[in-house]
Amino acid sequence: MRASQFPVELVSVVNDAISAYTAGAPMPPSVDGVFRWLEVDGWKQFVKESLAIQAVPYALFDDERVRHRYLLSDETLVSAKDRLRYCRGELNRLARERSRGEIRSQIVVNKIIAANNLGVLICGFHYSIPGLPSRDGRQRVHWLGVFDSLRAVAEAVERGQYLLITEKQRLSDSFLARLVSKSYSCTEDIFRTLEESL
């Protein structure tokens, strides 16, 4: 997405912010207006040109959720069998959402290019809540930040504790085993997934 695709009043803000970032200087506070525009008027264009991968927080696979699903008491130890059944059910639910085009949460990454052809990557976790409209027409996005490489994006995704889910992973026994054992994705796994999805 190029700076020229932003509203005229934001073009110079985008150009200045990218120049500042690539020079290692702090970005101007006015950059907040860029993110606000992206969450409303610019969202369709942003997503259209983004790398988007279905994603969920690690917390989705917490033992507390397993207990809630199977009505287990707080004192009951969650077994590997319960966890396996729960994880498989959640992966199938996420696959059904994807097949219906109803992905409710995803990691989105977009390259923003300034007038001088310098570029940065912007990444965020986008989610929706069924039956609950977003505030003021804004998309629900937790922005992870501005980055200079896909590997830096991968590190931020891991720090944010988000799990990327692709069809290839969903069908993998090893991926399911990692969920059951709570061995979530490491930066290298996330980086490979992002790279393969480009």
Structure, explained:
The protein has 198 residues and is an alpha+beta fold. The protein has one domain (3-197). The protein is built from nine helices and five strands, in the order αααβααβββαβααα. It has helices at residues 8-22, 31-39, 43-48, 63-69, 80-99, 150-159, 167-170, 173-180, 187-197; strands at 51-57, 105-113, 119-127, 140-147, 162-164. The chain has a five-stranded antiparallel beta sheet with strand order 4-3-2-1-5. Strand 2 and strand 3 (119-127) form a beta hairpin. Helix 5 crosses helix 8 (173-180) and helix 6 (150-159) packs across helix 9. The protein is elongated and about 55 Å long. It starts with 7 loop residues before the first helix and ends with a helix.
Question: Short summary of the structure?
Answer:
The protein is 45% helix and 18% strand. It is an alpha+beta fold. It has one domain.
What brief labels describe this structure?
45% helix, 198 residues, 9 helices, alpha+beta
- The N- and C-terminal alpha carbons lie at a distance of 15 Å
Q: How large is the share of residues in beta strands?
A: 15-25%
SSE topology string: HHHEHHEEEHEHHH
The general outline is: elongated
Task: Give the strand tally.
Answer: 5
Tally of DSSP helical segments: 9
Return the structural class: alpha+beta
The order of strands across the largest sheet is 4-3-2-1-5
Total individual domains: 1
Poorly predicted runs: none
User: Average pLDDT, to the nearest integer?
Assistant: 91
CA radius of gyration: 19 Å
Helix content: 40-55%
Q: Could you describe the largest sheet, including whether it forms a barrel?
A: 5 strands, antiparallel
